[in-house]
Amino acid sequence: MQVRGLLLLLALILLAATAEAGKNKKEKAKKDGSECEDWRWGPCVPNSKDCGLGYREGTCKDESKKLKCKIPCNWKKKFGADCKYKFESWGACSAQTGVKTRSGILKKALYNAQCEEIVYVTKPCSSKIKSKSKGQ
């Protein structure tokens, strides 16, 4: 019986210590946090080349911060990774130009990015004609 009581007491002490450690972490986060609510964030600047891990700088009144960010390496669009658009389907292929076009309407601007409301993208027409083959 004494062993069970000792184990129960040890478990309660461990639980209390864990709860106290959680409180300290929350208080520390509040101390490190900023009172400022009107942050202005710059674009994500990669550490090297034009994609990958990097930093975004933000300012609010006389405070400044740096956040880690990432630009995917397959992201080559001119409107930037901080502007999210909802795109229509691709239009028909233009025989004159050999490209097809579609437009996108701004859905979300991350970090107060300056984004265009509507963007247009083009791509070359496919030379292949897709056909569905039926299995026998």
TrEMBL record:
- Record keywords: Developmental protein, Disulfide bond, Growth factor, Heparin-binding, Mitogen, Secreted, Signal
Q: Where is it localised?
A: Secreted
- Alphabetical list of InterPro entries matching this protein: Midkine_heparin-bd_GF (IPR000762), PTN/MK_C_dom (IPR020090), PTN/MK_C_dom_sf (IPR038130), PTN/MK_diS_sf (IPR020091), PTN/MK_N_dom (IPR020089), PTN/MK_N_dom_sf (IPR037122), PTN_MK_heparin-bd_GF_CS (IPR020092)
Question: Does the keyword section mention Disulfide bond?
Answer: yes
Which species is the source of this protein?
Answer: Nipponia nippon (Crested ibis)
Record's protein name:
Midkine
Pleiotrophin/Midkine N-terminal domain location is 23-79
The entry's family comment says:
Belongs to the pleiotrophin family.
Biological process according to GO: positive regulation of cell division
Give the main location: secreted
One GO cellular component term: extracellular region
